[in-house]
């Protein structure tokens, strides 16, 4: 796939229509993903990261729905698919997902092999030796012995289960693989090993990967591009190393300053005062303004535009001031 854009998301909005009001979980989000590249999505809980992933899978459950925008996945308009087509043509084959806490979704009464072969059997009609060969190939890729194929989930460690889920998500060679907090429930040693495996996989495979996590330091390591989300918006988007080295948006600056660093002598870590807003009634103007130390005149009145600042898209009024 090389440099081809495989995923093009434009002005995507997904809202939840609850009895307490409309939760604007995702508002006017746009980004692209090329084959062989990865996008990291970071932000606090409730910023819309997971809603974005569910929208890409056309899996937003009522009372939620996609209200606006388009998701073009290698020529397929995802927002137009009905449930039946999404199940048959989209999930697993075009886009697959490793869900948060995925290692706990394995069924205890079936072997690893039985569970891995299911998508091959149901969606591609591939069974027997051919299915085993495919499973073996992807178990190899995540550094697992084929001997695990006949074991039950309770015979495996957390790291092994998580690797099996990642291998299963790759089986049908989807264009895009979404990994939602792929290492959250694991200890740091296993986490480091899995992140290394994912880095190697990224080089071997041609599909696009989306990593979702609240841990920015992991994303700087593993993703080519970075989208920083706040209250349903992407507030900063671009090359992840550039953003990590020189963040532009006040929210990204705070997030990065809050990462503990081993070799830097500081009295206390930065933190972001306050809490993310209620998305039934987000703050007028810039949604970050009640917590932003740089807020000025128009910040609580007008929604900021996106500005291209040295190749990075930044949604902040500070940069229209600079432009002026
Ligand atoms: Fe802060 Fe204003 Fe920029 Fe929002 S638009 S991040 S409130 S300076």
Structure description:
There is one protein chain. The chain is an alpha/beta fold and 324 residues long. It has a single domain, classed as Rossmann fold (3-Layer(aba) Sandwich), CATH 3.40.50. It has an eight-stranded mixed sheet, sandwiched between helices. Strand 1 and strand 2 form a beta hairpin. The two termini are 41 Å apart. The protein binds iron/sulfur cluster (SF4).
For this structure, what is the CATH class? Answer: Alpha Beta
Give the low-pLDDT segments. none
The best one-word shape is globular
Cα Rg: 21 Å
Strand order of the largest sheet: 6-7-8-3-9-10-12-11
Quaternary state, please? single chain
Task: Pick out its properties.
25% strand, 324 residues, Rossmann fold, alpha/beta, binds iron/sulfur cluster, four-stranded antiparallel sheet
Quick structural summary:
The chain is α/β, with parallel strands linked by helices and 324 residues long. It contains 10 helices and 12 strands. Helix 3 (112-124) packs parallel to helix 5.
């Amino acid at each position: 796939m090389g440099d081809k854009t495989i995923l093009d998301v434009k002005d995507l909005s997904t809202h939840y229509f609850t009895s307490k009001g409309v939760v604007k979980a995702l508002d006017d989000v746009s980004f692209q993903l090329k084959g062989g590249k990865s996008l990291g999505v970071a932000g606090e809980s409730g910023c819309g990261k997971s809603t974005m992933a569910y929208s890409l899978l056309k899996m937003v459950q009522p009372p939620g729905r996609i209200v606006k925008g388009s998701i073009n996945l290698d020529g397929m308009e995802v927002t137009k698919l009905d449930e039946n087509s999404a199940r048959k043509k989209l999930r697993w084959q075009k886009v697959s997902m490793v869900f948060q806490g995925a290692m706990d979704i394995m069924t205890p009464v079936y072997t690893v092999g039985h569970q891995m072969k299911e998508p091959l059997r149901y969606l591609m009609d591939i069974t027997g030796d051919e299915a085993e060969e495919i499973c073996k190939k992807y178990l190899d890729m995540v550094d697992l012995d084929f001997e695990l194929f006949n074991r039950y989930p309770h015979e495996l460690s957390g790291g092994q289960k998580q690797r099996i889920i990642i291998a299963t998500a790759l089986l049908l060679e989807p264009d895009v693989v979404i990994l939602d907090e792929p290492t959250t429930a694991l200890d740091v040693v296993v986490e480091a090993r899995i992140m290394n495996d994912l880095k190697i996989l990224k080089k071997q495979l041609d599909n696009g990967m989306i990593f979702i996590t609240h841990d920015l330091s992991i994303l700087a390591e593993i993703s080519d591009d970075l989208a920083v989300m706040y209250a349903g918006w992407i507030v900063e988007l671009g090359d992840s190393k550039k953003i990590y080295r020189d963040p532009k948006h006040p929210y990204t600056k705070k997030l990065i300053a809050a990462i503990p660093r081993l070799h830097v002598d500081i009295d206390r870590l930065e933190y972001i005062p306050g809490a993310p807003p209620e998305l039934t009634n987000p703050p007028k103007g810039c949604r970050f303004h009640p917590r932003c130390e740089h807020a000025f005149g128009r910040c609580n009145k007008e929604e900021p535009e996106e500005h291209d600042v040295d190749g990075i898209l930044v949604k902040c009024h500070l940069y229209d001031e600079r432009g002026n």
